[in-house]
Amino acid sequence: MAQQVIDSPTDIDTVQSIVERAFPRAPGRAGDEIARLELLKQLHTYYVGYISGPENFAKIPRLNLDEEIRRIEDRWLHWADDRVNSFELPDEAQDFHDWFLSVADAHTQADFNEYLAQEASLEEIALFFLAEELVDSKFDDLMAMVQIGTQGLTKLTIAENYWDEMGEGHLEQMHTRLFDHSAKYMRERLDAVGFDYSTLQFSQVYENASLLLAYGIHRHLNPRAIGAMGVLEQSASPRFQAMVDGCERLQIPEDVIEYQRIHVHVDADHGAEWTKGVFLPLVEKSPELLRQISLGIATRVQVANDYYSQAWARMKALRS
Ligand SMILES: [Fe+2]
Ligand SMILES: [Fe+2]
User: Fold this and answer.
1) CA-angle at 240, arms to 239 and 246, nearest 5°
2) What integer pLDDT is reported at residue 3 of this predicted model?
3) pLDDT at residue 282 greater than cutoff 60
4) SS3 of the chain: helix, strand, coil, percent, to 5
5) What are phi and psi for residue 261, nearest 5 degrees?
6) Ligand 1 centroid to 308 CA: how many Å?
7) C-alpha 159 to ligand 2 mean position (Å)
8) How distant is the alpha carbon of residue 169 from its chain centre?
9) Quick one: which of 8, 12, 148, 265 is 20 to 30 A from 187 by CA?
10) CB of 123 within 8 A of CB of 190?
């Protein structure tokens, strides 16, 4: 469990200096990747612990009580916000829709998708699939968390999306189960070639998952979670299609491809439904809400872009 008791000022000073190294305040400074990996892993363990099931109730951390976690989280979330300074956020609700579509469109990762579809080896596809595990294996819980407190059409839209995650009521079709089935196959392929799993240990993989978890868990960040989940859905279909094409090219069995195949169309629908049922009613409510939703979209895009480019570099490194 990530909770650590800090009982002396010296400890807190040490934590603060590691935090500053990992997430530097000076713009353009890269920071310390090893420190960042360690801190984001710590946060990720904490968040996953927080959403663990009833059987683990005794180990579930209390929110906001751990001073160390609070310091890491506070600095990291500011650091993530600083990286989206170049995004021009919409000022008016009426500008939101066009802005969102153009941001989501630019986020579909066309070059990466082409690589997945046409060039990536089985090991590279497997590496990427397992890098996705930190998000995809928790996706139904992430979806459930954004539904809390919404109303009417917004609640119903998220409920329909959640029902798809539940395989429309069929246990074997639950998306997390389909994902686990494919992940097992991918892991076996990597085991067979003696894959070094430390390749999957990079800060961006933890940041990518932790951003959605942090936004979902902290109720005051809920508009950001709604933004982040919406842009994820809107931009996911082409990547799933690329994975299907890549898997077919490599003659990966159909039952392993099913997870990706169903998301090509399901997520295209989710993206459109989210715009109509979730975004448009909410961004009308206030300029502050519009801004928080837009910030959730921008930070998700930035964090995911950094994650995809690092995952891609690690995939290509398997070839040499
Ligand atoms: Fe899904
Ligand atoms: Fe979806």
Assistant:
1) 90
2) 47
3) yes
4) 80, 0, 20
5) -60, -45
6) 19
7) 11
8) 25
9) 265
10) yes
pLDDT digits (tens, 9 = 90+) for 94-129: 999 999 999 999 999 999 999 999 999 999 999 999
Q: For the chain, report the end-to-end CA distance as a whole number of angstroms.
A: 37
Tokens of 150: 């919404």
Ligand nearest to the CA of 141: 1
Closest ligand by atom to 271 CA? 2
Which ligand has the shortest distance to the CA of 267?
A: 2
Residues whose Cβ atom is located within 5 A of ion ligand 1: 175
pLDDT in tens, 138-197: 999 999 999 999 999 999 999 999 999 999 999 999 999 999 999 999 999 999 999 999
At residue 5, the pLDDT reads: 44
pLDDT reported for residue 10: 62
Query: Ligand 2: distance of its center to the CA of 22 in Å?
Result: 32
Which of 95-109, 237-251, 265-279, 295-309 shows the lowest mean pLDDT across its residues? 265-279
- Evaluate whether 243 touches 260 at the Cβ level (below 8 Å): yes
With contact defined as beta carbons under 8 Å apart, do 229 and 212 qualify? yes
Which stretches of 148-253 are DSSP H helices?
152-165, 175-192, 203-217, 222-249
Alpha-carbon span 80 to 236, nearest angstrom: 21
pLDDT higher than threshold 50 for residue 6: no
Q: Ligand 1 centre from 11 Cα, in Å?
A: 42
| Ligand 2 geometric centre to CA of 29 (Å) | 35
Q: Which ligand is nearest to the CA of 140?
A: 1
Paired tokens of 207 = 């940041």
Average pLDDT, rounded, for the chain: 94
Query: Is the CB of residue 235 less than 8 Å from the CB of residue 104?
Result: yes
- The pLDDT of residue 8: 55
314 CA to middle of ligand 1, Å? 25
Ligand 2 geometric centre to CA of 198 (Å): 29
**Which residue matches tokens 């395989």?**
167
Instruction: Determine contact, residues 278/157, Cβ cutoff 8 Å.
Output: yes
